[in-house]
Amino acid sequence: MDAVQRQQPDKRKRGRIRLSKIYSYACVRPTVVEGDSLVPLGGPGFSRVVFCNQPERHRTKPFKYRSNYVSTTKYNIATFLPKALFEQFRRVANMYFLFTAALSLTPLAPLSASSVILPLIFVVGVSMIKEAIEDWRRFLQDREVNTRKVRVHTGNGKFADVEWRKVRVGDVVQVQKDQFFPADLLMLSSSYPDGVCYVETMNLDGETNLKLKKTLEATLDLDGDDEFGGFVGIIRCEDPNPNLYSFIGNLEYEGSVLSIGPQQILLRDSKLRNTQYVYGVVVFSGHETKVMQNATDPPSKRSGIERKMDSIIYFLFSVLVTLSLIGAIVFGIRTKLYMPSWWYLRPDDTTSDFNPNSALLSSFYQFITALILYGYLIPISLYISLEVVKLMQARLINQDIHMYHEETDKPAHARTSNLNEELGQVDTILSDKTGTLTCNQMEFLKCSIAGVSYGVGVTEVERATAKRLKRNTEEVNDLPRNDTWKAQANDEGIEMVEKPHVKGFNFRDVRIMNGNWALEAKAEVIQMFFRILAVCQTAIPEEGENGRISYEAESPDEGAFVVAARELGFEFAKRTQTSVHVRESDLSGRKLEREYKVLNLLEFNSTRKRMSVVVRDEDGQIYLFCKGADSVIFERLSKAGREYEEATKLHLANYGDAGLRTLALAYRKLDEAAYKEWSDVFLKAKTTIGLDRDSKLDKASDMVERELILVGATAVEDKLQKGVPECIDKLALAGLKIWVLTGDKVETAINIGFACSLLRSDMKQIVVSLDTPSVKSAEESNDKNAIMKVSKEAVRSQLISGQQHVAVDSGTDTVFALIIDGKSLVYALEDDMKELLLQLAVKCASVLCCRVSPKQKAMVTRLVKEGTGKTTLAVGDGANDVGMIQEADIGVGISGVEGMQAVMASDFSIAQFCFLERLLIVHGHWCYKRIATMVCYFFYKNIVFGLTLFYYEAYTNYSGQTLYNDWFLSLFNVLFTSLPVAALGVFEQDVPAKVCLEFPSIYQQGPQNMFFKWDRILGWMANGVLGSIMCFFIVIGIFGHQAFRHDGQISEFQVFGATMYTAIIWVVNGQLALATSYFTFIQHLFIWGSVVLWYLFLLFYGLLSPTISTTAYHVLTEALAPSPRFWIATLLVTAACLFPYFAYVVFRRQFSPMDHHILQEMMYLNKDVADLELWSQERSKAVERAAYGFTARVEARIRLIRQRLHSNASPPRNGGQ
């Protein structure tokens, strides 16, 4: 029974309000009439044909469309092996070891084939397994989406639950409340009789406010399962494309051709809200849907250090080839000239390896042998060690309690470990706004009415500024404060505003609350202000079980306005098809319910920047109520309506500086004749079907929105996520740049820019838009080519003009902000203009890109990444951010309340934007320093070890004899030096987390790449070369041709090799100890434990049978341990090899210390506790000069006040005296 009721809509709903008329109003609703022109279809880009309710017709070409199955994985069963192998062998080191593994199968190899091939298989295999596990997780996430269920029409009016992946183009589906749409649908009907529904598009554009969609009137009656038994129709529309905000098509149904627009399209991954169900037909499925068209393939990202490692390995490989070539040439010459006299080698009966008659061939064989033997110069275990270390680093990031969000129970999560060190090298952050920086929750905080400012609330911007000023009391003690500051900073500290009791309303002012407004001098103006708030809106009232009315609004701003009106005594109570009912108070305090007949609605758009409603009150008077951007309203005021203009402008400036979103409110009285004349013009424009409809509507609206009377202005606060302003300030002080890329309109983005101090009032804004007279003139011609040409030239001229402005003010304290909208970006991102955009943008302190599509976000990210050549990080929370997250060097997803697409596509996920501060400044700095030092050390120890093999080869006439036992060679990187370097990579801290956050400029060591520049890399290599020389020749000098045993015998190569190996173990582990700043028990255990492990191995391995231990048989117990020369050589070599590095560090710390050196010494001397004044002074120095953020904002404010004081204190000039 329940199922039947669910399928059959309640017929009583027919008598309820037609909600679509609330939105568009029936009196001005366009209808398709005979003769209306439809968009021409069938040409390029408009070839799609969909047979509604006949999915079987799409099984053959040309109507065979893609399935609804989606995949975000990098691999599948067929491509995993080739693609994963490609990923591994594009690493230069792995290619080299593949080459040597092939050579090891030949008789020329000095080592066994297994000792070369098995390590390669292990390293590559472990990396491929890691890749497979990560991609398997993506596959499981895809499977969860693909196996969701939706009701699909199976024929004869019957519906059944079908998995998303089996949904086909042409299928009729029923989506129920709070479900996601499985594909791009043409909406046919809904549970509301008027065919409207509410859609949440957070996963598409990041916005949480609901959008209203409406069906065509012709399909309204398709409101039950049974109705679809005989339903057929044909859709002819545009081909799949990534444009989320447009759709062009026609529906052929019951002999009529109906125009389809974006208002009838329900996009995949948006969610049905506040509507019991909708019916729709699938137009685009799977990867052809708009959200998937905006997605890009999962990129294969590599860190900058890893890419540079390839260059280092190229360099070492060239060294290896050079050494092998030198050895081969020398060997060939000596074989040719001296081999005949070496009788003990039997030159008359030798192989081609030592044949003086074929010296060239012998030289070639020696070259191949050397290539394999000197391979220890290139560390095969480097990549696998990095993999392990990065996994451990990722685990530490995941377990950081300071990045755990208790409310949502979500910790930080490193979804890939390949990019840990990149977190410490970020130069530019590209951030989404809604849901990333803000909560998208508006609160009515202040207002200006009749030239009087009301509201004593303190914004987050004001609160943080006051705190900052209070910390700098010495500097600002004698400076005058404006009214806003006085409201928040006093002797007791910061005024705390109690939490609002009502969502959307945080207003406090007894002068106009609780009916006190009637006692004010301008009570009639205040009444009109509240009336405009209650009437000039498109919200839907809903009465709850407790009798309290709540509102469903298209935007959070509008919701805040109607809530504020309700709380201040003007309750929007009811809406009918043609009227609005408001329970309001008169001047005597009586409660009345007034009805306002809605005659026309003039909708808001980014060009008009205002919204108006024309109503008739109960007395028959016609009013136009208008709210919009102050710049637009002020220019439309009548002479009599400007009474409060100057005072309102001052208040608006203060509100803007406090980070509030502002709108001006005005009204106009209309007489009947004037309204009738205008109404005819407006109705004609409203019913126009064609490309010029919007321009005609704007012109008609502009005719009536004149001669307005200013009432006041509103100020609402878009609540930032907790800690966002402080986080942005810290990132600014660390020297990072932040760009905001948002789908919101320009005004919204600017207000948020002020709220989080990316913008401030003294910044010069460079606005690039197509809202220019030349573009508007071209649009009137309806000539697309002319519009494109004029638009492109307008953008170019604005970019050039912006550069000129920046150049004129260069060298001053003037800072600039670039604000550009999506339409302008279309042209600015073209190949011949994007360089202009980048040149201007990098010179600006803040960049805001508004009304951008997901594709444009990715394109801007690519422009910054490739144009600057520096590391970029993109952060977002919705599916609309996936493109830029994947395009950036590092992608960070915010695991918000709704949608996980951004997280699924990201490299790192966090629950709140504020955690980005710790992720970058702490973990990023640590990981960069750890990995850079680890890689440099890896090359150092392998050079020390590998070059001794070359020296010994030269010492033995390139005989091919190895200096060390085979097991010594195999275990050097695997056992005796692997754990200490892993401990360095996981646990090293040059300074603690607290100090990183207190001294954020230390982060710049990463973007400036101070620990992985070529001079530093070559310095480590030079240290390795010097160490290898001293190690080899000191041991040679000590053991050489002198008697070693009691019977006068000299040491054999086994003793010589074991002694040198022991010295190298001490040297490389001692070097690591010198390079370590932060010691824990684990570091000590691994460093000194590795040395002890070597002695234990040598002892027990030497006790084995000589067939197993070979050259190590009893070498410690019988030869080395009893000999003082062995212990002296070990000590002397270790001290000699470590002294150069020790001396360098002492010199550097004494005469040219780095930031972390100074901080380490201050902490060692307990200055952070014993001398707080010195500690604070150093903190004030250890910041990058920021052009945005609270610190920059307060400093700019102090400079302005000082300038005013200086100008007031300056004596007046006596012109003629």
From TrEMBL:
ATP binds at D432, K433, T434, E558, F604, K627, R661, T742, G743, D744, R851, K857, N880, D881. It comes from the Eukaryota. Its cofactor is Mg(2+). InterPro entries: ATPase_P-typ_cyto_dom_N, ATPase_P-typ_P_site, ATPase_P-typ_TM_dom_sf, ATPase_P-typ_transduc_dom_A_sf, HAD-like_sf, HAD_sf, P-type_ATPase_IV, P-type_ATPase_N. This is Phospholipid-transporting ATPase. Residues 903-1153 form the P-type ATPase C-terminal domain. It is an enzyme of class 7 (translocase). Belongs to the cation transport ATPase (P-type) (TC 3.A.3) family. Type IV subfamily. The chain crosses the membrane at residues 116-133, 312-333, 364-386, 931-952, 967-987, 1017-1041, 1053-1073, 1085-1104, 1124-1147. Its main location: membrane. The active site is at D432. Keywords: ATP-binding, Magnesium, Membrane, Metal-binding, Nucleotide-binding, Translocase, Transmembrane, Transmembrane helix. Residues 50-114 form the P-type ATPase N-terminal domain. Pfam families: Cation_ATPase, PhoLip_ATPase_C, PhoLip_ATPase_N. Mg(2+) binds at D432, T434, D877, D881. Its EC number is 7.6.2.1. It is found in: Membrane. It comes from Adiantum capillus-veneris (Maidenhair fern). It is a multi-pass membrane protein. It catalyses: ATP + H2O + phospholipidSide 1 = ADP + phosphate + phospholipidSide 2. GO terms for cellular component: plasma membrane. One of its GO terms (molecular function) is ATP binding. GO terms for biological process: phospholipid translocation.
